[in-house]
Write a structure and sequence with these properties.
The chain contains eight helices and 15 strands. It is α+β, with helices and mostly antiparallel strands. The strands form two sheets. An eight-stranded mixed sheet has the order 7-6-5-9-8-4-14-15. The protein has a seven-stranded antiparallel sheet with strand order 2-1-3-13-12-11-10, with helices on one face. The N and C termini lie far apart (about 35 Å).
């Protein structure tokens, strides 16, 4: 286990204002402290407000389960995967069961993960019959010599190794409001998790079905390591939003690189990527991050973002809007 610095009181920063309080989140934030383990999750950034009560309540369940697993000594990778798999299964987000159809009328799912302790990564794209794309990404990482597999070839490999499959005609939920023609105004329900475990290991995981009503064959940033997902021995990040902009910016890796090589703070690095490199070019979205040094950040340049976190004290914080 890593040696830790003396504990210091957790501090929350919303913009430039330090606040005191627990339980809910209302704006982008940076948290600084010293903690043995933690989990941060997101359920996607959005541009149009709706009633997200059910989403936020479910995020609390995910965080409670993740906290229990981290406290019991599970690895950051396994906890991040479990958190994303729960969000895939719930049907509330545009990932896993909640997936809407593409422009050709069928489902295409993407996911990726990265283990900061080993530098290993796995990713999948254009899956049609796999229940949990994030578990598929983990299977690619652990059972193949590859990082990224797609479409029918990936599904053949995954079935060979015993992945759980579903009937896409009956399993996935199709929301006409979400999947209508006004793509730019719909809720992008990408889901993601970043975790720090008791041994100081970091991991990141992200899953989506992409833009609702997307062109057949379109792949966004979610399955691309360095764009939406990145983890190393210092930081783990997961992103959501308009994927093309995150791909061009190599967004998740850029934040990590600015922190490592330029010595920038997590707050400054993430704001630079979201506000300048993505926002000023017309893109929108958000990111979550956790560091080995004791920082947690959730940032976005959209109307809002579902998200939350739990640290070793067990207090659950949810609800960015």
């Amino acid at each position: 286990m890593l040696n830790r610095k003396p504990r210091r009181k957790l501090k929350f920063f919303f913009g430039m204002t330090e606040i005191v309080g627990r339980g809910s989140i209302s704006r982008p934030f940076l948290l600084r402290g010293d903690f043995m383990h933690g989990l941060v999750i997101h359920g996607g950034a959005y541009k149009t407000r709706r009633d997200f009560t059910a989403h936020d309540e479910f995020l609390r369940e995910v965080l409670a389960e993740g906290h229990k697993r981290l406290a019991a000594g599970e690895s950051a990778l396994d906890v991040a995967v479990q958190a994303v798999a729960m969000m895939e299964d719930c049907g509330l987000f545009h990932a896993g069961r909640g997936t809407g159809r593409n422009s050709a009328g069928y489902h295409e799912l993407d996911a990726s993960l990265m283990d900061g302790a080993t530098g290993q990564a796995g990713a999948v794209a254009s899956l049609r019959t796999i229940r949990n794309p994030i578990r598929a990404a983990q299977m690619v990482m652990e059972k193949s010599p590859h990082v990224f597999m797609v479409a029918e070839g990936a599904e053949n490999f995954l079935r060979h190794h015993g992945i759980e499959t579903v009937d896409p005609d009956t399993y996935f939920r199709h929301d006409m409001e979400r999947d209508g023609p006004a793509i730019k105004d719909t809720a992008h329900g990408t889901v993601g998790a970043v975790a720090l475990d008791r041994d100081g290991r970091l991991a990141a995981a992200t899953s989506t079905a992409g833009i609702p009503n997307k062109l057949e064959g379109r792949v966004g940033d979610t399955p691309i390591i360095g764009a939406a997902t990145f983890a190393d021995d210092r930081i783990a990040l997961s992103a959501t939003g308009h994927g093309e902009y995150f791909i061009r910016a190599v967004a998740a890796y850029d934040v990590a690189a600015q922190c490592r090589y330029a010595g920038r703070t997590l707050d400054a690095a993430m704001d630079d990527v979201l506000q300048t490199k993505i926002g000023e070019k017309g893109g929108w979205g958000g990111m979550i991050a956790i560091t080995r040094g004791g920082d947690v950040k959730l940032g976005f340049n959209a109307t809002g973002m579902h998200g939350g976190f739990v640290l070793e004290d067990g207090h659950i914080h949810v609800g960015v809007s």
